[in-house]
Amino acid sequence: MIWIRLSVHAPPILRDLVILVAIAIPVVALAYRLRIPTIVGFLLTGIALGPHGLAAVRDTGSVAALAEVGAVLLLFGVGLELSFSRVVRMGRDVLLGGAGQMLTTGALAAAVLGLTGLPLPRALFIGALVAVSSTAIILKLYQARSELDSPHGRIVVAIAVFQDLAVVPLMLLVPVLAGGGSGSGMGALRQVAVSLGVIAAIIVVGRVAVPPALDRIVRLRNRELFTLAVLFLGLAAAFVASRFGLSLALGAFVAGLVISESDYGIQALSDVLPFRDAFSGIFFTSIGMLLDPAVIVEHPLVLAAAAPGILLLKAGVAAAAIRVLGRPFATSVIGGIGLAQVGEFSFVLAGAGLTAGLLGDTEYQLFLAATVVSMMIAPFAIAGARPVAQWLGARLGRETVDLRTSEEIAIGTLADHVIVVGYGLNGRNVARALRAAGVPYVVLEENGRVVREAREAGEPILFGDGANPEVLRQVGIERARVVVFAIATPAEERRGVTNARQLNPRVHIVVRTRHVASMQALEQAGANEIVPEEFATSLELFARVLRHVGMPLPAIRRLVETARRDHYSFFADVAPRLSPLHQLGALGVELDVDTLDVAPSSEVVGQNPVSLRLRSRTGAIVLAVLRGGEVLHDVDEAFAFRAQDLVVMVGSEDALNRTRGLFEGTT
User: Fold this and answer.
1) How confident is the model at residue 354 (pLDDT cuts 50, 70, 90)?
2) Which of 67, 258, 484, 596 is the most exposed, having the fewest neighbouring CB atoms within 10 Å of its CB?
3) Domain holding 264: CATH number?
């Protein structure tokens, strides 16, 4: 029998984690309140708690181990978000743009360092470190800004992917640069061949074996098993890669690219996100712990020159590389700024270089300091990239075309508008109605294909998570009059309602949910009106059956209203505001509204209410006619009813019954 011994004493790593998270929570919360990216909060937390700061965290080795797991999950998630087919489609941009940017950046950085007297191998190595950008930061910030599918977003991601893949040969060149012998060079070539073989094997095995394996697991309909399987695939790929001399994070990145190709890629990403976000926080915190603030104090001039120098060099070279690919001037500038920071894979390379003797302790710390500064500046630089591009274009006489679509420009000036989250059937219907009524609106949708097709059709639509507070800010939630959530996931509905209510306490929130059971939670989250799909459907069936068996319309309406008061209470609250007929009812005037279809055999076809003497014959009045999606209000002598018209009538119960027979051709 195997006994598991549970210690009553907390291990040191638990104490350190408690301190780390306890400090990170208020720091990140403050960063959020100040609209500073959380990455900055994590980095500052690490600097404060690390061995060179307050030394509150003692077991930095254990934290580093957790950070390694964080890096694995971070890059696994990046791979899931990108997908292998997307990388292949970006082939030209990946190869030409990525190679041009890395080689030029590395060469220029090495040349500058060479002028300071640094040996060529070390200068080349530091140049390679500087050339790599942060895919994690780029994806996180661009996704929050709904710019992943923008012209600059696509090219920036392509170049960042090349940089991540280029880490493989760079890691293998470390011993060559450190030793300089021909033997080590041949060994490196062999290792490159082995590494490429391992990556190819992961891709081939993954594409052949992963889809059917996940398909079998999904058939069991067990969410926990699916999540475990996805995590296993990512960690297993990382382990296999490490056994052949590759980094754990790179193996996980390739595994993510492969899994994203399956039908379950989106679900896999959503399952990994909570783990990724938690551990990536530890990862960035551990980076902050590595930094010794004393080095900044001792070498302020070096850092003052290095940090902005790296940012300017990388932005300029990347912009030139993008321009060479034929992109517009403004796209090139914005893309260059997006790639200006130093990336997470550079820390992996720097650690290997420190071990091999390519970096001294002081050089390592200065590189860390410059990198952390570049990461902190990145969110603000990306946010200001568009104005910078416009300013430079105007100064240099280049094209100053606003890179936003016409819809995005209009969205930036929207006020008192409607935000529609989700562009499924319900979202489309809401958008169609808003457009017909002339109400300004914007749509948020997470399906890229749907977004592209809708944009081509002239829809004011953006790609983004409508439950994300940053995305809601981008579409003017603070100025919106109404937000309509027409998405299918209850958890996302609640998150979206909560965030929308926090960002704008006055906005009117309408939610279409699938189940009545979700109504209470959505109401507590801040929704004003909740439309449960299953209940609305049941009421419609209920009313149609009663009407078919001959029950009078007012009696059906009273039964439906009773049902709504019992289970669908918001209708009873909203209806009096929407219809003045309820106020007339309080005065003893009994009027109803009904919609009648014009049958092809009806005598009203080709006539109008005046020629039919409709008021004197039936006592009912025509309010409007719905024809082909258009609402017609001028129903006068020049008007003529057509078959299939939907006529909105008002009158007493008897008047509407007489009118129904006339329009349906039964009298």
Assistant:
1) confident
2) 596
3) 1.20.1530.20
